[in-house]
Design brief:
242 residues; alpha+beta; PH-domain like; 2 domains; 5-stranded mixed β-sheet; elongated; transmembrane
Length: 242
């Protein structure tokens, strides 16, 4: 049985669901700021190495957007997409270092390489964080029995805030402890399960479900609540899919 009450793990999950998205935005900052300074050098690269420049640009654009979408949709494929993006940046850096050009481009080359290098570092951090945090969800989704201690999550039961709420989900039944009173129901008694995660840009997340005459509802904006509510949602519906 696995207890879902490790706050550090909940708090650190922000690195995948929220912080990684902001990091993905930050990947563009060095490029947007420094590449315009290097516009003459970039134009020369496109003129003399047209095919290579076009291919690399398309790959960067395509896999940057794929990895962004994967992060936003909680996908683990972000590691693959972002790794391809990083390899493309690395290929650009190596290529620039091997190309001999006029010394007049020296400052622009430095700015260009700085932009690529900073973007590469930020993208690498995103990959590491996304990979480690994406493993956390397996902790909560892979058990046949999962105990959720929801005292600090802010659940309403029949529109009343509860001080003590525990939910033990098993394969055929769900056990509830509401304000230290125990209840036991069949898992088939769980109805109308709805979940929507909170977004990066401020939309509240929520989880709603009904067990016979008890209506459970939680609206939240704290990031650590994403994993709790998603794991609870998943465990409530996973046996229904069989």
């Amino acid at each position: 049985m696995k207890k879902v009450n490790n706050k550090k793990r909940f708090d650190s999950f922000i690195s995948k669901y929220r912080s990684c998205i902001w990091l993905q935005f930050m990947v563009l900052i060095p490029l947007v700021v420094l590449l315009p300074i290097s516009h003459n050098y970039v134009a020369m690269l496109f003129e003399q190495y047209k095919m290579f420049a076009i291919i690399i640009t398309v790959v960067l654009f395509f896999f940057y957007n794929l990895s962004f979408i994967a992060i936003y949709n909680l996908g683990k494929t972000v590691v693959i997409y972002q790794s391809i993006y990083i390899c493309s940046l690395f290929a650009i850096i190596l290529s620039v270092l091997m190309i001999k050009v006029d010394s007049n481009y020296l400052l622009e080359i430095i700015m260009f390489l700085t932009a690529m290098f900073l973007s590469l570092i930020i993208a690498s951090i995103t990959v590491v964080i996304a990979h480690t945090r994406s493993q956390l969800i397996n902790i909560f989704l892979g058990y046949r029995e999962t105990l959720f201690e929801l005292n600090e999550v802010g659940f309403l039961v029949n529109n009343n805030m509860v001080e003590n709420l525990k939910i033990l989900i098993q394969e055929k039944q769900v056990k509830l402890e509401i304000n230290k009173t125990m209840y036991k129901f069949k898992l088939t008694d769980v109805k109308d399960v709805e979940f929507q995660c909170a977004t990066v840009f401020g939309r509240l997340g929520y989880l709603k479900f009904k067990v016979e005459d008890y209506y459970f509802e939680c609206h939240y904006k704290k990031t650590r609540s994403d994993i709790i509510n998603y794991a609870l949602y998943y465990n409530l519906i996973k046996y229904k899919k069989k």
